[in-house]
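Supplementary Methods, section 5.1.

A reviewer requested that the exact input to the structure prediction be made available. We therefore reproduce it here, unchanged from the version used in the analyses.
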Amino acid sequence: MEPFPEMSDEDQHPAVVLRRHARHLNARSWGWPLSGPAFHPLADALYWIDEISPWSKLRGAEDAIRCLWYHRTGLILGEPREFGELWVLGRRLFPRWVGFHPSRCRPLHQYKVIYRAGRLAVARCVAQLEREIRRQGE
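The structure derived from this sequence is encoded token-by-token as follows.
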């Protein structure tokens, strides 16, 4: 048994995780042709599935990448959001990452609609779940 077991990516500061995965993120420089954005409820942000595929070596980095998605969605919405320092760090460490492509960072109306529809759908699901929980408690 090791005296200090290695910490998982989930236990590390996002900047540490992004540094660790920078080479792999920089290698993800091309987008899937028919891939569009989707709403990620845990990140409260838009993401593209080709930015971090489920079978990639980046699985442990998703929490840190969510910070990038969250900040980028602020750019799309035209609203300032936190994690700007991680955005700058990422742009420096892995500038070729497909998530930094200009087409994914500009405020397009269709992206705003997808984001708002995603948030609304999640809010409705949560409200329905809360109603069901209250009914079961009665």
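The mean pLDDT is 89. These observations are discussed further in the main text.
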